[in-house]
Amino acid sequence: MTRENSDADANPDLLRDAREAVVEYAPALAELTPGRTGNLSVRVGDAVAVTPTGVAYDSFDAIDVPVVSLEGERLAGRMVPSSEVPMHTGIYKHDRPGAIVHTHSPWATTMATLHRKLPPVHYMIAAVGREVPLADYAPYGTEELAANVVAAMAETDSDAAILANHGLVVTGADLETAVENTHHVEDLCRLYLRASSVGEPHVLTDEQLAAVEERFESYGQQPDAK
Question: Where in this chain does the record put each Class II aldolase/adducin N-terminal domain (predicted)?
Answer without folding.
Answer: 20-193
